[in-house]
Amino acid sequence: MSDIPPTSNKTDKRNGIEVDVRALRDLYRALDAHSESAAMAAIAELHPADAADVIEQLSSAQIRALARLIPVVFSGEILSELPDDVCETVVEELNARQIADAIGKLESDDALHLVEELDEGLRAEVLDEVTPKDRAAFENSLLFEEDSVGRLMQRELVALPLFYSAAQTIDSIRNAAADDIPESFYELYVVDPGFHPVGRVGLVALLRAQRNANLEEVMIPLQVTVSQNMDKEDAAYLFEKYDLPSAPVVDEAGRLVGMITVDDMVKVMHDEHTEDLLALAGVSEAGLGDTVWDVVQSRSPWLLVNLVTAIMASFVISLFDQTMERVIALAILMPIVASMGGNGATQGLTVVVRALAVRKITSANARRVIRREMLAGFVHGLIFAIIVGLITWVWFGSLTLAWVIFFAMIVNHFVAGLAGVLVPLGLKRLGADPAVASTVFVTTVTDVVGFFIFLGLAALVLV
Length: 463
What we know:
alpha/beta; MgtE N-terminal fold; CBS-domain; Tetracycline Repressor, domain 2; 4-stranded mixed β-sheet; about 65% helix; globular
C-alpha cells in the first residue's frame, strides 16, 4: 500500500519520534494485511496527539481504509488533534452515531470545533444523536460568526457568588457533576447576583485561603472580560498582552456565558501566524494527504497574478530595447537592481505585516515607522550602490555605467523601503488583509521602478 519507514536504531524508546516511526511502520503493515487488531495495537498506547501525528502521515486512501477498518480508534481526543482536512476525510467514513459518541466525551469547545467542520447534512444527523442539552448548546454556538469568541468558548466553568467561603467553594467543586465543570481549569470566577463576573480566584489562592474566608476577600478584580462577539484574534491579543491563563466570556448584557483558556489562544496564535506566513508567499497550507491537483488549484491564482506583474515589468524593459541593444552590459546588470530592491522591500514588508498582526503599529507611531523604513532603505541603497558601482567599474571599465547603477540602486532601495511599509498600511486601511496581497504589489513596484530608473538613466547618459 505504501513504503514502510525504515526501522529506527532506537526502537526501544517509547516516546518521541522513535515511537511515531515505529507506530507508523506497524500501521502500514496492519493496513496492508487488513488486520483490525494489529492496526489497533499500533496506536493504542500513544497519546492522542501522537496518534494524530501518525495518522496524518497516511495518504487519504489509507486514512479512509483505517476509518473503515477500526472506526472506534477515532475517539474525540484523536479527532480533535487531527488537522481539519484529515478530520474531514475521517468523518466521511463514520456514521452519525459514531461521531456523536466521539464528541460526547469532549469539552464543549472541542466538540463544537468538530461539529462545525461537518457538512450540513451530516451535522443535522449528528445533532439528532446528541442529548437535547448538547444540541441546544451547539445550535446556539453555531449562530456566532466563524472567527468569533462565541464559537471558541467552552461553556463548562466554575462560577460562584461573592459570599461563598473557601470551604463552601471547594465542597461545591468536589460535589459538582462531571459535565458541569471543565476537565482542567486554572481559576474560578466570582459573580454578582446578576451573574456578572466581578473577580477571579486562582486555584492556588483558593487552597491557601482560610476556610471561612469569603471569595470577595480572596478574589482579584477582573482586568479583562471578553465579549462572545469579539474576534478570536483580538482575544488572543488580550491574552498575550495581559498574560492571562483564562478569561470570562460575557454576553451583550455582561452576564457570564463561558470562558476561553490559554491553550485555545495558543492554537489561535499559531493558526494566525501560519496563515500570515503562507499568505506572504501567496500559498495555502498543503496537507500531507493533498493531491497534486489540490496543490495546483491553491497556488495557480497567485502565480497568474505574478505573471501579470511580470508582464508589466517586461513592458517597461521593452521601452528601452534600443538602449539595451547598444549597451549589452545593461542586460547583465539589470537583474541586480530589481532583485536587491525586491529583497529589501520584502524584509521591510515582513516586519510591518508582523507588527500589524500583533497590533504594534498604531496611528500614533505609523509616521515614525514610515520614516524609519524610508531612511533604512536609503542607507541600504547607499551601501550597496557603492559596492555594485565599484564592481561595475572594474568589470566593464565604464565609470559612467558605474554612476548609472549607483544612482539606480539608491533610488530603488529608497522606493523599496517606502513600498514595504506603505503598501501593507494602505491595504490595512482599506480593510484588506496585508499579508495576502502586499507581496504582489511590493514586488511590482520594485521591479517596475528598478527597471525604469536604471534603463531610463542609461538611455539619458549612455546613448
